[in-house]
Amino acid sequence: MSDKILNFRVNYKGLKIFDEFNINTPRFPIVLSSPHAGEVFPPEFLANSALSLPDLRSSHDCYVTELIKPASDAGMPLISMNISRTFVDVNRDKIELDDAMFYNAPPRNGINSRRCRVGLGVLHRVVYPNQNIYAGLLDYNEALERIKKIYDVYHHRLTQLVEKCVRQFGVCYIIDCHSMPSMICNIMNEAKPLDFCICNLFDESCPSEVSAYLRTQLERQQYRVECNRPYSGAYITFNYCQPRRKIYTLQLEVNRQLYMNEKTYDKNADFQDISTYVSETLTNLGHFLLDLKK
Fold first, then answer.
1. 113 within a domain of the structure (yes/no)
2. What is the arithmetic mean of pLDDT over 222-242?
3. Structural domain range at position 50
4. 257 assigned to some structural domain
């Protein structure tokens, strides 16, 4: 990254941070979160990025919100991020700021997470394959503004939906929904590519019988499902898990190749079938969770 200084400010007034669905009539103790599906890039950001729009889109979870929307329609609140994770990633801790990205970062206590080191902190430095997003150094204060205006707004609303679920049902299961590149799914040295990954922090974030039920449901059509391989969960899975309050978390990853063309970003012919299948699976999970409470 060059020493050029990039001083810009974003006008947040015109940005809709998130969409939410079915928040008034929940039937199941589940809150759906789609934190990486956002496709909105503030124009000020685009003007100061060194990359093209297709490059910037490469890391977001295309169509995940649309994929799970039928499950929300069946009775699950869904919050979906509109702003691209390339601009600010709400599935990171807000302290995961890479000081090397800024010309004026204050002295801190050495926050040096693995994600920061590879350029994927709360503000991404790179997109695949290790392409720098910026051709210069950012203003640290502008980064704090992103966190306040976008990151905090998303998490405030997600927290409200979780608390409402706990009040209504006495328990809440957050299903944090993502997609994973087929490249990742194809390099795990098995004959059949991975289709779904259930992430539960190695059985720490959710009762094992719930994860086992979800896995069984996903395997109905001979899909290959793994738990905690290649992912075990990220910030939302870890941060929102509070077993003593009966708040549990799962991260669900879907192989993008199942439902889209990863080069053109178009849906493929199987999109509707995959959407129906995943949504029916989540709805079945909702009924299972209600039976657990009896």
1. no
2. 95
3. 18-84+140-293
4. yes
Of the candidates 260, 18, 281, 37, the one whose C-alpha atom is nearest the C-alpha of residue 158 is: 18
119: left (phi over 0), alpha (psi -120 to 50) or beta: left
d(CA 261, CA 43): 26
Does 103 reside within a domain? no
Q: What is the CATH number for 154?
A: 3.40.630.40
Asked if residue 40 belongs to a domain, the reply is: yes
Tell me how far apart the alpha carbons of residues 293 and 194 are, in angstroms, rounded to a whole number.
32
Residue 256, Cβ density class (10 Å: 0-12 exposed, 13-18 middle, ≥19 buried): buried
The predicted pLDDT at position 293 comes to 76
**Angstrom distance (rounded) from CA 242 to CA 173:** 10
Indicate whether 57 pLDDT > 60.
Answer: yes
pLDDT digits (tens, 9 = 90+) for 151-186: 999 999 999 999 999 999 999 999 999 999 998 888
Question: Omega before 129 cis (within 30°)?
Answer: yes
Domain total of the chain = 1
Q: Of 173, 177, 204, whose CA–CA distance to 293 is shortest? A: 173
Helix or strand holding residue 164 (H, E): helix 152-169
Least confident of 8-17, 189-198, 208-217: 189-198
Of residues 106 and 74, more confidently modeled: 74
Contact 80, 72 (CB under 8 A): no
The Cα 282–Cα 250 span in angstroms is 12
